[in-house]
């Protein structure tokens, strides 16, 4: 699953898009208002991730209605795409994402 990915996502207050790099069990990414950092595992082509999302730019709406939060996500790899679902732990707030692999990382 390592690589450079685009992501389209939806939350309780709208939708958005960004980019994510998966490398060595770590997640790095962002969009026009938020940074994403975290960890992931890949077991039998199933992604499980815990991602911290934090605002870095004022004025951009949050799809989850918060300036920072943690997400737990799972999704299955199908070709060059992952359809993932998740939530903010301890809340009923749900999140959905579609990741599309854009490229491999150099080794």
Q: What is the second-level CATH architecture?
A: Beta Barrel
Report mean pLDDT, rounded to a whole number: 96
Helices, by number, come to 0
**Cα-to-Cα separation, first versus last residue:** 14 Å
Query: Strand order of the main beta sheet, please?
Result: 1-2-3-4-5-6-7-8
Total number of strands: 8
CATH topology: Lipocalin
Count structural domains. Answer: 1
- CATH H-level superfamily title: T3SS negative regulator GrlR
Please name the defining characteristics of this protein.
107 residues; mainly beta; eight-stranded antiparallel β-barrel; globular
Tell me what the structure shows.
The protein has no helices and 8 strands. With 107 residues, the chain is mainly β. Strand 6 (68-78) and strand 7 (81-87) form a beta hairpin. The mean pLDDT is 96.
